[in-house]
Amino acid sequence: MKTLKIIIGFLLLYGAGKEYIDASTQLGSFYEISIIIPIFLLIILCTWLIGSGFSVRKFKFKSFEFVKFFIISFVTFATVAIFSIGSKIIPSNFVVINGIKVPLGKCIDGNRRIIPDEKEREEYCKCFIEKITNQPELKSKYQKKLEDDKVNDVFKEIQSSPKFLELDIEDCMSSIKMKWTDNIANSMKRNWKKELIGTEFESTNDIEKYCDCLVDEYRKFPLEKIMEDGFAESKEAVEIDEKCTKQSEK
Questions:
Q1: Which residues have a Cβ under 8 Å from the Cβ of 127 and sit 6 or more positions away?
Q2: Residue 100 parent element (H or E)
Q3: Considering only CA atoms, which of 111, 183, 118 is closest in space to residue 151?
Q4: Contact, 21 vs 85, CB < 8 A?
Q5: Membrane-spanning regions, if any (predicted)?
Q6: Burial classification of residue 130, based on how many CB atoms lie within 10 Å of its CB (0-12 exposed, 13-18 middle, 19 or more buried)
Q7: Which positions of the chain have pLDDT values less than 50?
Q8: How far apart are CA 240 and CA 236, in angstroms?
Q9: C-alpha 217 chain-centroid distance
Q10: pLDDT score recorded for residue 231
């Protein structure tokens, strides 16, 4: 039983280290409180599992033994995290698209939560890059960044560009099965809140309730449908907005 506790503890730490890096890189911050708190609690749990597994006497939280095993747990977690982030820094999965040699590793990892299947993520990234490099102007503008393993940065820039709609990026998603995750939902909520804070809407409605309502209602639809062009103006979206506006009135 004690050996099993130790094994489970270290396995959880290994998973936590990798998950922390994956989630943080996707959110663009290593200081996201919604990630740090669960990870910290998990490290505490692993400290108890490993500590009680090794200890001869009853393992107590308020003891030198706890501090010792907490340090061991944290170092294990940090080591896994460092190796995980190191693997993301090194360019990988090189492909040649329209004469440009592009590493797809970060793009593939960055879409893990939206597109579960690795092969589908790879095809999506290839399609996206091909759409960009098919246009001489964009190819010239972004070639250096694409070659320098900055595909995700390029995607963010393209999203805010007037040319985004012309690229028909949604074609790249046509054969891909996407799934809702808490990270996607939370990201949507954060974006909505940023847009609404300081507006007249905030004076008449509770933004937190409004955004929570939107997320709950949107998650009733397949993510692919939500991502389609024009969904925001669709009958379903308008009805959701009216419902959430009503429910969030002050």
A1: 171, 172
A2: strand 100-103
A3: 111
A4: yes
A5: 33-54, 66-86
A6: middle
A7: none
A8: 6
A9: 21
A10: 82
